[in-house]
Input
Amino acid sequence: MKRDYYEVLGVGKDASEDEIKKAYRKLARQYHPDVNKEANAEEKFKEVKEAYDVLSDAQKKASYDRYGHQDPNQGFGGFDTSGMGGFGDIFDMFFGGGGGRRANPNAPRKGSDLQYSLQIEFTEAIFGKEVDVEIPKEAECDTCHGSGAKPGTSVETCKTCNGTGQQEVVANTPFGRIVNRRVCQTCEGKGKVVKEKCGTCRGTGRVRVRRKIHLSVPAGVDDGAQLRVSGEGEPGANGGPPGDLYVVLRVKDHEFFEREGNDIYCEVPINFGQAALGDEIEVPTVDGRVKLKIPAGTQTETFFRLRGKGVPHLRGNGRGDQHVKVKVVTPTKLTDRQKELLREFSGLAESNGSEAAHTDEGFYDKMKRAFRGE
Output
């Protein structure tokens, strides 16, 4: 059973001529067989074209609105592609084929871009890094110099299409003589034929290689940043320039530091006495240890700022800050004397501030490694 033409184009019955045309062009691009390789793409394309043929014609549209698919005069069930010049000409009309003509297959074309993922450490993203990477890519065959022909032989112009890469098929239809242009089946649109293929590249003119490339990772990059290396993509065709290489950076998480923009965050434990009486403690940063003054009466989860100890600005001078959150930990093992003092001072224990209270050993291990710059 046929679907409603308005439903096919996704427009309402009050849609204007421009809205109908716009909807058709969008769907035709989406389902054109030269673009969409799904099994039912061609059928959907035909359905869209049939709907547009009716709704774009004022007389046919009026009849369809009155009778639907059962119009006794028009018979909307039929669809004939013979007057369309084939899918190729419609594709050219939409995608810039120049009045039904495809681009010259022998014209220089830029090579494809490549993408490579590079994982770096947290501190390498902050301070930058010089690194050599090996990129798998295609390169011009050294044996045939990219021609694809066996050494001592030459590439011939395709006799079927005379080097144009296209074949013209003439069809006589009720609407007149239609010339349809299709990709030449002999040379597959290349315009050239290699009779004796190069044994190294098997006639493709290209071979797979691994190329070493030096990268300079700038200080301050973040996860997902891309580095563009011009000219290190796939080689171009017919003398065209090569594509570019895009290196996507993946930054490993750090077990002690966290990053938000250009600022760095960390959490440091202090004991009850340090929080109550104040103290000066050492805090790890990406630059090494620094002193941090804890004022008396500090509450747990208070933040302190270390200016200029964050991430360098990627564009411009200066650095972000490091934010230190102190966590007051409760001792789990007390001597009888300490318990007595706590009761005497209503929960305030004396402390010389020299060491933090007992807490999770894993937390301290992470902090120790941060102190060592790991």
Confidence is low (pLDDT under 50) at residues 74-101, 346-359. The chain has nine helices and 15 strands.
